[in-house]
């Protein structure tokens, strides 16, 4: 019986020992991916911001709060279509950034379509990739870092300028009790396109600069606190400045008219929701990549040792029994 038990234990130990690396190096790279049907909503705020009042002589004024609602919806049908030609798992995010003034009225809306590899988060270039209706070809990441983010600089896409530039790894931080990586990106003053959705009628963004001689300029300092396991930002803040130059802004000081200036942060309730979501997904990724393989390997090693111990006891028992003495 001992030998039978030791053989069974040995077989199970070999199975667990083989399953551990299979799970880590075969299953994990295939199972760890962004789901194509993800839906998420985020509310950000800029308190004590400066906002251009288009209805009161085009003058900037101090407001209590500007609200930014960002919705992200996975487009499953578009993902399937692109996967057929790309030959890999692809995620398509249709996002909308809805900016709301203190009176509850829309300031602007900017839609995006972001297409990327479900496993690596690298951009995938396909028809439909755009920002505010303008075709773009992203380089680098946007919205999310890769699984198991490295402590280094990454190329990050800025939707306002439609360009990519390095986002710098500053160092490790602790955020709400979690160890994170802190990144910063500063985009210098850059001329950008007007949003196609404007707060007043009669402005054609396509011809605004040509007809008025006025251009829109933008600068931002973006800050992200990123969970290195999931690659998801636990917190994001931005110091954003937008101003009009020339044309209708010629009479303003220095020929510049502030369109928006403010420090944008996550609203507290959405910050808590994001933290809980990342913690949950972090455990799933670690279970698949680390905990389960280590547990299987340790279990296999323990059963292997137990099998050897039972086999040794069995052999010892046979030796002690010996052959009967003859009369």
Concise structural overview:
The mean pLDDT is 89. The chain has 327 residues and is α+β, with helices and mostly antiparallel strands. 31% of the residues lie in helices and 39% in strands.
Walkthrough of the structure:
- The protein is α+β, with helices and mostly antiparallel strands and 327 residues long.
- The chain is 31% helix and 39% strand.
- It has 4 helices and 12 strands.
- It has helices spanning 2-31, 76-86, 208-212, 268-321, and strands at 39-53, 59-74, 90-100, 106-117, 130-131, 134-135, 154-158, 163-175, 178-192, 215-226, 233-245, 256-266.
- A 12-stranded antiparallel sheet has the order 6-5-4-3-2-1-12-11-10-9-8-7.
- A hairpin with a 5-residue loop joins strand 3 (90-100) and strand 4.
- Helix 1 (2-31) runs antiparallel to helix 4.
- The protein is elongated and about 105 Å long.
- The mean pLDDT is 89.
Mean pLDDT: 89
Number of strands: 12
Query: Helix and strand string, N-terminal first?
Result: HEEHEEEEEEEHEEEH
- Please state the overall shape, judged from the principal axes of the Cα atoms: elongated
Strand order of the largest sheet: 6-5-4-3-2-1-12-11-10-9-8-7
Q: End-to-end span in angstroms?
A: 31 Å
Instruction: Specify the structural class.
Output: alpha+beta
Question: What share of the residues lie within helices?
Answer: 25-40%
Low-confidence stretches: none
Strand content: 35-45%
Provide a count of the helices: 4
Radius of gyration: 29 Å
Largest beta-sheet characterization: 12 strands, antiparallel
């Amino acid at each position: 019986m001992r030998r039978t038990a030791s053989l069974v234990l040995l077989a199970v130990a070999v199975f667990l020992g083989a399953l551990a690396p299979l799970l880590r190096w075969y299953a994990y790279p295939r199972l760890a991916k962004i789901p194509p049907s993800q839906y998420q909503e985020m509310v950000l705020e800029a308190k004590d911001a400066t906002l251009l009042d288009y209805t009161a002589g085009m003058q900037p004024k101090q407001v209590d709060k500007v609200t930014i609602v960002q919705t992200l919806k996975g487009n499953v049908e578009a993902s399937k279509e692109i996967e057929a030609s790309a030959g890999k798992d692809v995620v398509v995010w249709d996002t909308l950034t809805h900016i709301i003034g203190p009176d509850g009225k829309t300031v602007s809306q900017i839609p995006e379509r972001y297409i990327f590899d479900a496993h690596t988060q690298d951009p995938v270039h396909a028809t439909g990739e755009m920002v505010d209706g303008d075709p773009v070809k992203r380089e680098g990441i946007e919205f999310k870092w890769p699984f198991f983010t490295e402590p280094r600089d990454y190329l990050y896409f800025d939707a306002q300028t439609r360009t990519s530039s390095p986002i710098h790894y500053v160092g490790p931080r602790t955020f709400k009790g979690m160890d994170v990586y802190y990144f910063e990106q500063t985009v210098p003053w850059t001329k950008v396109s007007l949003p196609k959705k404007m707060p007043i009628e009669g402005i054609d963004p396509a011809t605004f600069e040509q007809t008025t001689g006025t251009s829109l300029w933008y600068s931002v300092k973006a800050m992200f606190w990123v969970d290195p396991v999931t690659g998801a930002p636990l917190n994001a803040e931005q110091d954003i400045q937008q101003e009009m130059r020339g044309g209708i802004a010629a009479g303003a000081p220095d020929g510049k008219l502030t369109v928006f200036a403010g420090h944008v942060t996550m609203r507290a309730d959405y910050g808590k929701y994001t933290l809980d979501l990342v913690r949950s997904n972090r455990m799933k990724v670690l279970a698949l990549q680390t905990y389960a393989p280590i547990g299987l390997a340790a279990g296999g090693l323990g059963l292997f040792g137990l099998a050897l111990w039972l086999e040794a006891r069995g052999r010892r028992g046979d030796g002690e029994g010996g052959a009967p003495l003859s009369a």
